[in-house]
Design a protein that fits this description.
Number of domains: 2
CATH architecture of the largest domain: Alpha-Beta Complex
Shape: globular
Number of strands: 18
CATH class of the largest domain: Alpha Beta
Number of helices: 13
Strand content: 25-35%
Bound molecules: dephospho coenzyme A, zinc ion
CATH topology of the largest domain: Quinone Oxidoreductase, Chain A, domain 1
Radius of gyration: 20 Å
Distance between the termini: 18 Å
Length: about 375
Amino acid sequence: MKVKAAVLWEVGQPLDIREVDLDEPKAGEVLVKVGSAGICRSDRHFMHGDAPIAIPVVLGHEGAGTVVQTGPGVTLASEGDQVILSFVPACGRCRSCLEGYSNLCDLHGATGANMLDGTTRLHAEGKDVHHMGKVACFAEYAVIPETGVVPLSDSIPMDKAAMIGCSVTTGVGAAIYSAEIKPGSTVAVIGCGGVGLNVIMGAALANASQIIAVDIREAQLEFAMRFGATHTVNAADQDPVRQVKDLTGGRGADYTFEVFGSGDTTKAAYDMAAKRGIVTVVGIAPWGQEAGINAVDLVRNEKTLRGSYYGSARSRTDMPVMVDLYQSGKLNLDDLVVRHYTLDQINEAYDDLDRGEIGRGAIMFD
Ligand code: COD
Ligand code: ZN
């Protein structure tokens, strides 16, 4: 079928909104009519070439929609199901999946921006077009492995469901599944965009006593107070490490999070952590950047430095938890999504992200 999609043909170029060919779903795959797709910085990293991806590619990894067709043998979803899309559709058979870390599925990693069988369902101009995260939801329709869709038992607004597909699970998950924040502890979050605000909400859910939001934009910091931040630090005009230490009685924070993606902010997250502090890095720095961690401090102060990918979550069991938390009023996703766009406005949406407009933007489809 012909579908409208935003294609990245070349690094550094705007997305090209055009018709592409989408094949029927193969065995174990479903066709989803996309309802909403979130504007996340991770797509931007690929557009800028900060991280490698096979091109041409349809980006978009934060989405939700409705299953409209199932391929042969599909048992995990049915036509008509409203679904959240997962950008790690786990195979369930590899060592990572079997050990319970489906967010790190080996087969998904090995097949990258292709389907699990290594081929693509998208084509244009006689070329195969790749699928970011096997989701590729900057398009009206997407073919997705059945393990990459998480059916909703109750309908929720599509833009909120889309957020659960990335920023919520990545951010809240980093706080509660990766870092396992203990009640009463102190937390600092560097980078308070769509994902960082969810780390803040996760810290609030975990009953942190102090949640220090760190950003370089005042508007983001004011906005962060709505999601549970108790203090703010503007790193544009203050040394964030000094400020976080001052706010925590000189100790540093028990849990720190890097949620922007750079070597410098990773080092700052490390340096502002307390003795025995847990440093959780969510952002991926541009290829080649290093963080310069002090090796003596690591040992003498028994710090823990860890990465967190997709919130260390298991999409098929943890995304429904995020839905429940939203429905019970414990996750404020209604205030998180502040701008809606059409697919034709996607380049504008990314310019708004670069300008640091507050909150999350979402593409809405008819
Ligand atoms: N100090 C503090 N804050 C900063 C600094 C700085 N030096 N520089 C920028 N910021 C702030 C910005 O003002 C902005 O508020 C925030 O950092 C970033 O927010 P967004 O909305 O632009 O970005 P998100 O939240 O959409 O994405 C953040 C990620 C860390 C997820 C992303 O950048 C990333 O590294 N992605 C790769 C990791 C990955 O693939 N994860 C899974 C899919 S998301
Ligand atoms: Zn994302």
